[in-house]
Amino acid sequence: MPKRSWAEPFKIKMVELLKMTTPKQRKDAIKKAGYNTFLLKSEDVYIDLLTDSGTSAMSDRQWAGMMLGDEAYAGSKNFYTLEKAVKKYYGFKYMIPTHQGRGAENLLSQIMIKQGDIVPGNMYFTTTRLHQEMAGGTFYDVIIDEAHDSTNPHPFKGNIDLNKLDDLVKKFGAEKIPYVCVATTVNMAGGQPVSMENLKALRAYTHKHGIKVMLDMTRIAENAYFIKEREAGYSRRSIASIVKEICDQTDGATFSGKKDALVNIGGFLALNDEKKYEEASNLVVVFEGLHTYGGLAGRDMEAMAIGIEESVDENHIRARIGQVIYLGEALLDLNIPIVTPIGGHGIFIDAKKFLPHLEQLQFPAQALAAEIYEDSGVRTMERGIVSAGRNAKTGDHYYPELELVRLTIPRRVYTQAHMDVIAESVERVYKKRHKITGLEMVYEPTYLRFFQAKFKKL
What we know:
By secondary structure, this protein is α/β, with parallel strands linked by helices. The chain has 16 helices and 14 strands. It has helices at 23-32, 60-66, 77-89, 101-112, 126-134, 162-172, 196-209, 220-230, 239-248, 274-287, 298-311, 314-333, 351-354, 364-376, 385-388, 416-431, and strands at 47-48, 94-98, 118-121, 138-141, 179-183, 212-216, 252-256, 267-271, 346-350, 378-379, 381-383, 404-408, 439-443, 454-457.
């Protein structure tokens, strides 16, 4: 029986016109931006794959919810709607809204980490690690080795290596580890998921040693989809029930609503510990706003509550990841080196394999992202040595094994035809890859340099 075609489970109600640029305009724009795609003007971008954070298209229900905003300074009814959604779909007892995920990361780090603490996690994420370091902690990577190999076929490359975690416990003592940070999915590894089996084993280990488990649940619905597809015993389970089971293995979570929950701004910190909740509720007033709005308008909280419900819809998540897989398979057919298995929120090109003639200190992923933009106006982003930053103590670059260019797909924004245009652009760049030169960093900010660093061609 022939394979049936699929289509997005929605129809388009409104369109935003895109600006078409010439090769010369793009060449001038990327040079002016210091070969950093973050510094391009949005109006000069044709297809924007910089991030899936806050760039998704909201539904008619979410836009209708925006009209129900209760903008009271304290006790907004939209806060209680959001709180109810968090308890229903994620099961956490307490919730504090924040302006986005990094606001929640800051709160968690401040209330949990003491000077000299050790924070293990399944590969670093930029803002998460910085907040941990600023609170006095040191991040240690305990992800399985397979995650650092772009072509390893392991279905759950986001898994935590319990032997690595046990080595840290033996070396530093469990009392120096306030929590293990678990990301679902693992962004820097290529959107790779964590298995339920691994989460349950981690939960048993940490319970034995009195260590908390804190979840970065930004893309938890995507992780649940991969569990449903790849892990035995879950094929008949609903996405919603798998999401809830993931949360049940943890003590709290940070959440950026700008991804799975399909909103343009917003996030929260969720906790089960009442005392830590009270501490965070007090601290959020300093950094964000009152604990019943946390830097958000009431309308944003209403839209996020609706988005949480929509994020676990079976048809939605299947089409969302299906579009990513469509682009990934198109690139594989063109022999483009990408991270496999294909992850949940984007395609990650292996820049070391794409540009083997460039050394890592010539910033190959940064150079490749600039070339793709110059070719077609498609904006991607670097996830390699620039994103990894420097060791705060030694000042040396971190040298990650993975040097990647991320093609991040916003939810419900682009069509299959856009995916074809993207694949064709990457193919054109691949054919001239031997002519691509490296970059030199000419401006480096102190924090999170990938956002604002500038480069020039060697």
